[in-house]
Design brief:
This protein is mainly alpha-helical. It is 79% helix and 0% strand. It contains 19 helices and no strands. The chain is globular and about 60 Å long. The two termini are 28 Å apart.
């Protein structure tokens, strides 16, 4: 019979995975509804409606560091549940919004809840499991997020066709309510024992506004122009504020984010490796559906189902690799993931053409990229957190997720810039090949980084407090 500690750990895994599924689905599914939202608000300009997605992404990235500190200071369970409440309220407002302004405002509310889920949820999960089973738990948690990515295109298309675009927001409400009710009873509270009662309050707006300004430049640079004054001002403002934030964090006795975490080699290297992999993966996945629909002439539903096999493979491998990583560590798995990414993207270059070729041009590269994702996503989380003391779970998780969000924005901006506005199918294919080659180079950097720079298991120290 399982002990009370084991039951609580499994319940924590269930709740955090359920919320991870919902949040991961939210990132992808909203892009499926863009055309329907545009049709619902015909008077709104495309630039205005783009903020339905941008406002959420910027809100989450900007609030991660404060949310991580609050989770360690006031309690991971408390921040997690309050974040769920904000996410439910924002989802409900989004689904009922009658104007573009109300929809964008509701997405900002939703982002507050989303920001709380990442660091608090990961900290709850890590605290619930002993170190010898931690990678297995992270593998399951990552697998559920991969399943969300697999289901999002097809489920989103079905929801929109059956119930309209509002359903992609309202579907969150019952899922989050289940997690909220169960979490109140099942989750155990934990805090960071070494976290001070006060924090550098000046750093809070510096970090949030700096990350937000930088993300605005990355997300909007493609439409505004990378050399336009407003884009350059966004980048400059972000760099200045983040530089000031880092300077204060070095000297302040109670920083919002402890930069000494980057002195932990595994944490620093894994975050750099995350940038390489995430830029490669998201530059690939963000523009691929549009290429299939515009160049091959496939419907949204057909392209969604065609892309799904890769994330399914990723889901399966995340679970098995989590168990494997508990025995051999994450380093070799991440090297395999980078190699699979190189092969998958080069298969696209070799076999994907202007005419539909499902097997060699899509399925085989897609399955190979599924292997890359299954060997990378959850493993990067485990690698980055492997030497983090429990007292810093929330803060370190927030820093890792901030890197994650910025990397997605870089990948998206890079892909959109490289693709541009092709005039015909030949130009579209050439643009996609540029994306695939850059992605393959990023995966090569991932391989080299974990092969030569990441510390071996014998060189790492696993803290217990």
């Amino acid at each position: 019979m399982a002990s009370q500690t084991e039951r609580r750990a499994r319940r924590t895994l269930f709740i955090t995975s359920l919320v991870g599924f919902m949040v991961a689905m939210e990132i992808t599914i909203i892009s499926i509804a863009r055309n329907q939202i545009s049709a619902a608000f015909p008077e709104a300009e495309a630039a205005t409606l783009s903020w339905v997605i941008t406002a959420y992404n910027i809100g989450v990235a900007s609030l991660l560091l404060p949310a991580g500190w609050m989770a360690d200071r006031y309690g991971r369970k408390k921040v997690f549940l309050w974040g769920l409440g904000a996410f439910i309220f924002g989802s409900l407002l989004s689904g009922l919004a009658s104007t573009p302004s109300l929809l964008i405002g509701a997405r900002v509310v939703q982002s507050i809840g989303g920001a709380a889920q990442y660091p608090a949820g990961l900290a709850l999960l890590l605290a619930a499991f002993p170190i010898e089973n931690r990678m297995r738990a992270i593998g399951v948690w990552g697998a559920v997020s991969g399943l969300a990515a697999a289901l999002a295109p097809s489920l989103g298309a079905l929801l929109i066709e059956g119930f309209g675009w509002r359903a992609v927001f309202l579907i969150n409400v019952p899922v989050a309510l289940v997690a909220l009710v169960a979490g109140r009873s099942w989750l155990g509270e934990s805090t960071g024992d070494e976290v001070g009662e006060r924090v550098d309050l000046v750093s809070v707006p510096m970090a949030s506004l700096g990350i937000g300004a930088l993300l605005v430049g990355l997300v909007q640079g493609g439409s505004w122009g990378w050399t336009s004054p407003v884009t350059l001002v966004g980048f400059l403002a972000g760099i200045v504020m983040l530089t000031a934030f880092f300077a204060r964090s070095v000297t302040h006795p109670e920083p919002l984010f402890d930069l000494n975490l980057f002195r932990i080699r595994s944490y620093a290297i894994a975050n750099v490796g995350s940038v390489f992999f995430l830029v490669a993966f998201f530059s690939w996945i963000i523009v691929l559906p549009e290429f299939i629909q515009e160049t091959w002439g496939w419907s949204v539903l057909k392209s969604g189902f065609a892309i799904a096999p890769g994330p399914v493979v990723s889901t399966i491998l995340s679970v098995t690799n989590g168990r494997l990583a508990d025995r051999i560590g994450t380093q070799r798995i991440l090297v395999v993931g980078g190699c699979a990414g190189i092969v998958g993207l080069l298969l696209h270059v070799a076999y994907t053409g202007e005419d539909p070729n499902f097997f060699l041009g899509l399925l085989v590269p897609n399955l190979t990229m599924g292997v890359a994702a299954g060997c990378s996503f959850a493993m990067l989380v485990g690698a980055s957190m492997s030497e983090i003391a429990p007292a810093r779970f929330g803060m370190a998780g927030a820093g890792r997720t901030t890197v994650f969000q910025l990397s997605i924005a870089i990948g998206a901006g890079l892909a959109i810039t490289l693709v541009g506005n092709p005039t015909d199918s030949s130009a579209a294919l050439e643009a996609m090949r540029r994306v695939w080659l850059v992605g393959a180079f990023c995966c090569l950097l991932q391989v080299l980084l974990f092969l030569f720079a990441f510390p071996k298991d014998s060189q790492r120290t696993v803290p217990t407090s």
